[in-house]
């Protein structure tokens, strides 16, 4: 069984992971988020070249298995279950989301976000997720908030999502595990 760190096609991601983790932990601290009690569901990459997506896919197939491939917002998004989880701060994450390039151009091809499961009612989820933040944090002028409800073909569960971007790192929250959503 090959490990993520040993796969040539994933070398760029392996090399950049420590910096991403540092930025992520710094963002969580700056946002005053205490997520120790929550499940870090999956980690996601972003790329703007088809060749990069294909290379990463090939690498991820060597250290895990394809859980799902669905069209979401006009592009394929793949989910991979890793044979061995990645250690991301306090969390072990064994699921990687690989969106293929779409309309939006990203400034770099790298790690982009981590998503946590915040259990709650779908209809009031956005308010529940906002409740994780202090009023001071929500009033920070540089804070970027995005509410969405992404859906893939055949998905039965709603997937309300809150994305918060701080210092080039995005943290996302949703009420269900991505594995439950793509069943």
Automatic annotation (TrEMBL):
It holds the Pfam family YecM. GO terms for cellular component: cytosol. This is VOC family protein. It comes from Pragia fontium DSM 5563 = ATCC 49100. The lineage of its organism: Bacteria, Pseudomonadati, Pseudomonadota, Gammaproteobacteria, Enterobacterales.
């Amino acid at each position: 069984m090959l490990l993520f760190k040993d796969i040539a096609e994933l070398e760029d991601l392996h090399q950049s992971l420590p910096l991403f983790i540092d930025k992520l932990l710094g963002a969580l601290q700056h946002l005053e988020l205490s997520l120790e009690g929550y499940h870090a569901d999956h980690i996601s990459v972003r790329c703007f070249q088809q060749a990069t997506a294909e290379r990463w896919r090939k690498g991820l197939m060597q250290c895990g298995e394809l859980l799902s491939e669905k069209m979401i917002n006009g592009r394929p998004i793949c989910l991979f279950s890793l044979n061995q989880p990645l250690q991301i701060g306090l969390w072990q994450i064994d699921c990687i989301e690989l969106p293929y390039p779409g309309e939006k151009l990203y400034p770099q091809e790298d790690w982009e976000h981590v998503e946590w499961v915040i259990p709650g009612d779908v209809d009031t989820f956005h308010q529940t997720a906002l409740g994780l933040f202090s009023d001071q944090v929500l009033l920070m002028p540089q804070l970027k908030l995005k509410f969405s409800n992404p859906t893939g073909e055949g998905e039965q569960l709603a997937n309300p999502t809150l994305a918060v971007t701080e210092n080039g790192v995005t943290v996302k929250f949703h009420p269900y595990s991505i594995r439950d959503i793509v069943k």
